[in-house]
Amino acid sequence: MLTTSTYKKVLHQLNGSFLNEVGGLSHFTARFFKQGFKPRYEVAEFVRQCFVIGYKSLPLIGLTSFILGLVLTMQLRPSMVSYGVESQLPAIVGIAVIREIGPVITALIFAGKIGSSIGAELGSMKVTEQIDAMEVSGTNPFKYLVVTRVLAATLMLPILVLLGDSISLFGSWIGINIRGATSFQLYWTQVFDNLAFTDVLPAFFKSFFFGFAVGIIGCFKGYNSSKGTEGVGISANSAVVVSSIVIFILDLLAVQVTDALGLN
Amino acid sequence: MEQLIKPEIDDDNKEFSEPVLKIQNLFKSFGDNHVLIDFNLELKKGESVVVLGKSGSGKSVMIKCVVGLLQPDKGSVIMFGKNIPELDDEELDRIRAKVGFLFQGNALYDSMTVRENLEFPMRRTWIQFSQEEVKKRVVDTLEDVGLAHTIDMMPAELSGGMRKRIALARTLILRPEIILYDEPTTGLDPITGKEIIELMNEIQKKYNTSSLIISHDMKCVQTASDRVVVLIDGRCYAMGTYEELTKNKDPKVKEFFE
Question: Are A137 and B69 an interchain contact pair (Cβ–Cβ within 8 Å)?
Answer without folding.
Answer: no
